[in-house]
Specification:
Distance between the termini of chain A: 31 Å
Radius of gyration of chain A: 18 Å
Largest interface: A-C, 46 and 46 residues
Structural class of chain B: alpha/beta
Strand order of the largest sheet of chain B: 10-9-8-7-11-12-15
Helix content of chain B: 10-25%
Helix content of chain A: 25-40%
CATH class of the largest domain in chain B: Alpha Beta
Radius of gyration of chain B: 18 Å
Order of helices and strands of chain A: EEEEEEHEHEEEHEHEEEEEHEHEHHHH
Oligomer: heterotetramer
Largest sheet of chain B: 7 strands, mixed
Mean pLDDT of chain A: 96
Order of helices and strands of chain B: EEEEEHEEHEHEEHEHEEEE
Bound molecules: flavin-adenine dinucleotide, flavin mononucleotide, FE2/S2 (inorganic) cluster
Largest sheet of chain A: 8 strands, parallel
Number of strands of chain B: 15
Low-confidence stretches of chain B: none
Number of helices of chain B: 5
CATH topology of the largest domain in chain B: Rossmann fold
CATH architecture of the largest domain in chain B: 3-Layer(aba) Sandwich
CATH topology of chain A: TIM Barrel
Number of domains of chain A: 1
Shape of chain B: globular
Strand content of chain B: 25-35%
CATH superfamily of the largest domain in chain B: Nucleotide-binding domain of ferredoxin-NADP reductase (FNR) module
Number of domains of chain B: 2
CATH superfamily of chain A: Aldolase class I
Low-confidence stretches of chain A: none
Number of strands of chain A: 18
């Protein structure tokens, strides 16, 4: 095929617009057994925190109609081991790397940004602000324009001028556009939409919540209409800000839907659990659709569903 | 790292027969069969193309073999329980099924002949028969205990029984063998048969009970655990258990890549739905 | 079977806890061809407004994975014809009637309450506040504690002491508990949870939003985990307030899940589109499950999944 | 009100055969077949028990008949297009399918013999053949025009053709009959055959074009419309069109209960995705 299938996010170039979603591909080692990581636009690593983290007790997941709940609780090795083991390995693979970070306080985000600012081989930082803020009664950063922008400002001040910042937003808010605006004002170069929706499953045998933590994050095709709506609204309000779209994409058609809504790149999460090769088949299918619809540049399709408003 | 032989294939279902409460299902998987070891599992896509089920289901490999005509066979024992397993059990010979295999760790096979005790609960007996054959070939003594709630849930095919020195059966309702649980008969069998190693597969509560007994008798315990798995390939972190590493540190450990076969004595069994104290990163 | 399967909401008695969901059963005429309406706990009528309303242009719906989007836009005959035709017919059937009302201004809600206050044969009023407030930049009443409670207060002041008020909330908010508290403070006797989630589908052939109104409300099994979470949170915060639960219920198991989370009754919406007899099979299955789990009174199962916290 | 004969049944699929681009499917529906009239439709559950598709799919009844042995048959013509219709078309004889039938209005049959012109687009020809038979029995002259994008999408079985006086075919690509659209040949046929009434079924744009021609020639036009339907039984309000009532008022009218067969001259056709001015309650 002959179309230009590359995309760019805040000045960074990616040869294809299909990324992995944070937390759904680990740090790439396992998937590399199924395909070379270089065939991804980028690998977005599992959100890393300052310290090692056990995550939540099991059960951590429940399948739901066309989706799943998870409450992994950000299990991970902490930034030191991550920088020691995962980043060099990914660099050796030649993968394009987007590092996702998560914190429990504004200071955590600042510390993580400082640790990452001079690490070579990273394309961008994705800032997961769908985390409880321990300094504010556990309220999730992404659920309030002020705390959301505090976290992003902390990263902005500490990251230096080089690395683009992508703020990842939660759909569990009354007005996602106002949150998007506040984090862009605070220095985010791009937005990732959407994180999971808060949900719960009750086991009707034990008659107790299925997850040990009671609530969990809903992902998968079930949430795709919410993702498309969020991306469309934010693209309409902030036409110049690049968006990494995600939420229930499991085919090239689905990815194209997010692109038409306004996504400059599309991350694949839950679909990888059903099919380790999902990102590859979606890449192939999306390229076919974009070409079949008559686009010679992928970027011309981004936000194309808005065209009536613009006319 | 994940099982280095793991691959995603379309496998034809060759046969599907009722066996007590279970379905014995045979798939044609070609070369892959040669790489499957006792204890490995497979991950199967369920529900067809427009299914509302987005996750694969894991099944222990009952048997894998290369036939003389070059056909590679993979056999499973499936309990039709919820939507996924019922769908699988309802498929007819000729259907093409999406399978990732082999996955996970396998049972460690001793280099010297030892006395082995194999303990299975419900469909947990499935992977033990292939293991029994391998152990017999290595000159081991192999005793087996199978338990279930009721007789129909004991999976013990004739040809499988042949490869063990003794078979003890327990059922909760007494409909077959001794009334009671597998753990009730273990201590005696360990002593009588001078057991060196226990291999087990079944519900987590059973594995925990066996671990207590194996620790008391200072016997090695390799168990195949069953935590619910979303991906089966190590990328989602849903399938973890607190397991002590070689460095003494207890980590939340993925049972799909560092299991399902694990050293039972290193697992911190717990039913509390809380991360035990002392786990790395708590 | 011998269990007590009845439920009560704000002092009103219903022989079974399965209701229809507003907008998913019209005014009952069509369903009465499939089963007698008396076998429902109650029929909740399509939200009625003051004046006749054409609703939105088609396409008004799109199927989504395990769900659907709709943007009917409250098509209906207006309160006069509704009182003239639908209520007498329903009374003749012997059905228990919950009337759902919707307005575009606080005054609309007041007017509708006055029109309904002396109408005989109504069990309760369900107040749909997931409507755009034309006096406040089209912001949805249910999305803000103040506007939500303004609408409910207007109904409270005008309805008189007789008719219980059930406030129906939107899940598209950052904190549904605060909205629930505000409407209860404003005089709601019960809560209905949840209305649809805002979503969008883009047609990848036309490359435009599938619905004429672009966005629509997401319903069906896809949203059930969000409904269970919302009901559980609100039940925990307001243990004494009765809840009519809804969202993605298509089996007795699903209904039981909402009951365990805290629903005193369960409304069936989208499932009726897939099966006109859904409410009947769900009633039967739920009664079987409740009995099989050892409850002799349905009401003992309500909120049973909270029991660890109470212990 | 909804079709008073409507019932929800499990129907066995008796046969399923390819016919050009379509599948001709026959179901055993018992007594229900006796109540199905030309123009009625059915609503079918698709995707099986764990399907992600929550809505039924509507299909026009191609033919319904009571066999002499008392078996009631219902026949459909299905275009395998998206997930639902592909699933249905992939079912094998013997499958049991969840069907609600009959639904909606039927074509009005004149009491006196008239000259009728039947116009179908794509699978829209399906309900016209049973209609043609009925009209012939009443002594009508029946001419038929079928159009599609290409020859394989013309559904016109042999036995069906027999019951019409003339059959004109148009295809967009000229692969069968006249190159062009059905509307291109209508005016001439109306004049030549002194047509009194047009019956039509097909895409909305075609129905709109026919309405323009029928109005110009002052001919009655009964058309079967196809708005997407969520419930098919009148409770959801998704399937509406602006239609003028007997009182002159234009209302958004449910095509599943007051259609699918409607008076084409009373429909306010529009492609604007907006409610036309003057509609009740706008
Ligand atoms: C490593 C591993 C190996 C496995 N091997 C086998 C195997 O060899 N054969 C087999 O049938 N299944 C096996 N399972 C279980 C299998 O993966 C599915 O969980 C099971 O088939 C149920 O899936 P479902 O879609 O039918 O039910 P779901 O609707 O997904 O329900 C699953 C839930 O039911 C519980 N459950 C599952 N099976 C049973 C049962 N029989 N009785 C009571 N509760 C149950 C699970 O713990 C879980 O909470 C294995 C699982 C793992 C992780
Ligand atoms: C009253 C009525 C009668 C109908 N009769 C028939 C019939 O006799 N035979 C039949 O095959 N279908 C018929 N349909 C259409 C049928 O209900 C489904 O819409 C169709 O089968 C597509 O469903 P799906 O699940 O495959 O596709 P979906 O994934 O649901 O896609 C549906 C979408 O595709 C469009 N579409 C549907 N079919 C086609 C097609 N063939 N070519 C291009 N676009 C299409 C629809 O307008 C809609 O936007 C009828 C619909 C109605 C409302
Ligand atoms: C098991 C699991 C773990 C996740 N972990 C993270 C995480 O660590 N950081 C993050 O920003 N998002 C995380 N997510 C959210 C995904 O990145 C993604 O935003 C969401 O799942 C929606 O996409 P999907 O429907 O394609 O999965 C996780 C999702 C799942 C299912
Ligand atoms: C087609 C359709 C129309 C609806 N109309 C209304 C309405 O008029 N008033 C209202 O309060 N809710 C309305 N709803 C929301 C439902 O009552 C219900 O809250 C929601 O659909 C979730 O339940 P479900 O998943 O069982 O459908 C409508 C839903 C659908 C699908
Ligand atoms: S199942 Fe996903 S990491 Fe083990
Ligand atoms: S399809 Fe539901 S009212 Fe017509």
């Amino acid at each position: 095929m002959s179309i230009n299938f590359s995309t760019s996010i805040a000045g960074r170039f990616f040869p294809t617009p299909i990324f992995t979603a944070s937390g759904c591909a680990g740090s790439g080692k396992e998937l590399s057994q199924f395909f070379p990581l270089t065939s991804l636009g980028a690998i977005v690593t599992k959100s890393i925190m300052i310290k090692p983290r056990s995550g939540r007790a099991t059960p951590r997941m429940a399948e739901t109609p066309s989706g799943m709940l998870n409450s992994i609780g950000l299990q991970g090795p902490g930034i030191d081991l991550f920088l020691e083991n995962d980043i060099p390995w990914l660099r050796d693979q030649g993968a394009r790397i987007i590092v996702s970070i998560a914190g429990e306080s504004v200071e955590d985000y600042a510390v993580l940004a400082r640790r990452l600012r001079n690490v070579p081989g990273i394309s961008a930082l994705e800032v997961n602000i769908s985390c409880p803020n321990v300094e504010n009664r556990g309220q999730v950063f992404a659920c309030d324009p002020t705390t959301a922008s505090d976290a992003i400002s902390a990263v902005r001040r500490n990251i230096g001028g080089e690395l683009p910042i992508i703020a990842k937003l939660s759909p569990d808010v009354t007005d996602i556009v106002s949150i998007a605006k506040s984090v862009v004002d605070a220095g985010a170069d791009g937005l990732a939409l959407i994180n999971t929706l808060l949900g719960m499953v009750i086991d009707t045998n034990s008659m107790l919540p299925k997850l040990s933590q009671k609530t969990g994050g809903l992902s998968g095709p079930a949430v795709r209409p919410v993702a498309v709506r969020a991306i469309y609204q934010v693209r309409a309000a902030l036409p110049e800000v690049p968006i990494v779209g995600m939420g229930g994409v499991s085919s090239g058609r689905d990815a194209f839907e997010l692109v038409l809504a306004g996504a400059n790149a599309v991350s694949i999460g839950t679909a990888t659990f059903g099919d380790p090769l999902a990102a590859m088949s979606i890449t192939r299918e999306l390229e076919e659709i974009v070409e079949a619809r008559g686009f010679s540049n992928f970027s011309d399709a981004v936000g194309y569903a808005h065209r009536t408003e613009q006319a | 790292m994940i099982n280095s032989k793991a691959a995603s294939i379309k496998a034809e279902l060759i046969s599907n027969k009722k066996a007590g409460s279970y379905n014995h299902m045979v798939f044609s998987v070609g070369e892959l069969a040669a790489h499957c070891k006792p204890g490995n599992f497979v991950a199967i896509k369920v529900g067809g193309p427009t299914s509302a089920m987005v996750l694969r289901r894991a099944f222990a490999i009952y048997r894998a073999s290369m036939r003389s005509d070059g056909m590679g066979l993979l056999e499973l024992v499936v309990a039709p329980y919820g939507n996924g397993s019922k769908w699988l059990a309802s498929q007819e010979a000729g259907s093409v099924i999406d399978v990732i295999a082999p996955l996970g760790t396998s049972f460690g096979i001793p280099v010297e002949p030892v006395n082995a005790l194999l303990v299975g609960g419900g469909y947990g007996s499935a992977p033990l028969f292939a293991l029994a054959e391998t152990l017999k070939q290595r000159g081991c003594r192999v005793d087996m205990v199978l338990g279930a709630s009721t007789a129909a849930k004991i999976y013990a095919p004739l040809e499988g029984k042949r490869s063990v020195n003794s078979l003890t059966i327990t059922t909760d309702d007494g409909s077959a063998g001794t009334m009671g649980r597998v753990s009730d008969v273990l201590s005696q069998l360990i002593q009588e048969n001078e057991v060196d190693v226990i291999y087990s597969c079944g519900p987590m509560a059973m594995l925990q009970a066996i671990t207590e007994i194996s620790t008391a008798h200072d016997v090695v315990h390799q168990c195949s655990v069953e935590e619910s798995m979303a991906c089966g390939i190590g990328v989602c972190m849903t399938c973890v258990l607190p397991v002590q590493g070689d460095d003494g540190v207890v980590r939340m450990t993925r049972t799909c890549v560092e299991g399902p076969v694990m050293d039972g004595n290193k697992v911190l069994w717990s039913t509390s739905r809380e991360i035990p104290d002392g786990v790395w990163g708590k």
